Amino acid sequence: MLIAVKSSRPTPAPTLTHVIASQGRGSVTAVTSLADDVFVMRCYSQQVEVYDAETLTLQRHIAVHGLGQSYGLAACPSNNCLYVSQYSQDNIHRVELSGSNAVKKWSVARYPAGLSVNIAHNLVVACYEANKLQEYTTHGSLVREIYLQSGVTCPWHAIQLSTGDYVVSQYTPGVVSVVGVDGQVIHSYGQSQTSDVGQMKNPTSLDVTKNDDILVANEGNNRILSINRSTGCVQELALSVDGGIQEPRGLCLDESRGRLYVGEWGGQHRVLVFDGVNSVTP
User: Fold this and answer.
1) Which end of the chain is more exposed for a tag (fewer CB within 10 A), N or C?
2) Is residue 119 part of a domain?
3) Which residues span the domain enclosing 173?
């Protein structure tokens, strides 16, 4: 079922409070946070940048040798581990954040892109070419596979909602869908919307609020969208940035701080930090 876009009053705009410059380190592919740390992954880098969430200064790098092309990053509070996807080599790297930063690696289905941690504290991998989601334990044991309904292609990122369903971004043809654990589509947003704001080109990273509302990094349209799950309303967030947001691919909502991180694939390859994010959905 396709949800129509409804008009609504604009929400108060978050404020850009900090910019993490690329300093020649390349395009941002993923951003996530855990406790007082913010993690940034860049394309073809073998290091994850770690920033202090209070000062937003670079604290250290975490080496992940042999990583290469990576588009997914997720942090799990239950085991204090960071997960990184190796897109071109079909692997996941698990990095222990305490102690020696020991790394474990395991194989997954074709072209793992976005990563998330679900309600059960398991890792969810969106497998771009295999058109399925894979769920793994924190130690890399396969729990289950969700084969997506025919026509649901190129999944980039998937996050579990409180209902147990998953919201999935489809890089091509440009749709965000809510699917059940059987892989069947429950709702879709994007391709067939009648309003320009609801149409998407190359949606990538997602995040979900505590109310199950959805944030979308709409890379091809240089904007961040919010979707109200109760009303079906799709709205562009009013994020004021000099030169505009350029091909956003990384996205992370820290509701405890009222903060949104946006990582740019294009332009200056910045990480944009917006505070005052008290209500980001229409």
Assistant:
1) N
2) yes
3) 15-275
For residue 2, the model assigns a pLDDT of: 41
Kindly state whether residue 9 falls inside one of the protein's structural domains.
no
Q: Which two tokens stand for residue 244?
A: 């505009």
DSSP class of residue 183 equals: S
- Token digits for 206? 């997602």
Which residue from 147, 157, 213 is spatially nearest to 180, judged by alpha carbons?
147
* Spatial CA neighbour of 35 closest among 51, 12, 18: 51
- Out of 18-27, 97-106, 118-127, which region has the weakest mean confidence (pLDDT)? 97-106
- The structure tokens listed for 243 are 């030169």
Give the pLDDT confidence of 44-75 residue by residue, as tens digits.
Answer: 999 999 999 999 999 999 999 888 899 999 99
87 phi and psi angles, rounded to 5 deg: -60, -50
Q: What is the pTM of this model?
A: 0.93
Q: Considering the domain boundaries, does residue 217 fall inside one?
A: yes
With a cut of 90, say whether residue 246 has pLDDT above it: yes
Residue among 213, 210, 237 nearest 227 (CA): 213
DSSP-assigned beta bridge partners for residue 225: 216, 236
Query: Phi/psi of residue 88, each to 5°?
Result: -80, -15
**What average pLDDT score do residues 33-46 get?**
96
* Number of domains into which the chain is organized: 1
pLDDT exceeds cutoff 50 at 1: no
- Asked whether 169 and 216 are in contact (CB, 8 A), the reply is yes
Residue 36 belongs to a domain with what CATH number? 2.120.10.30
From CA 168, how far away is CA 182, in angstroms rounded?
13
Residue 44 inside a domain? The answer is yes
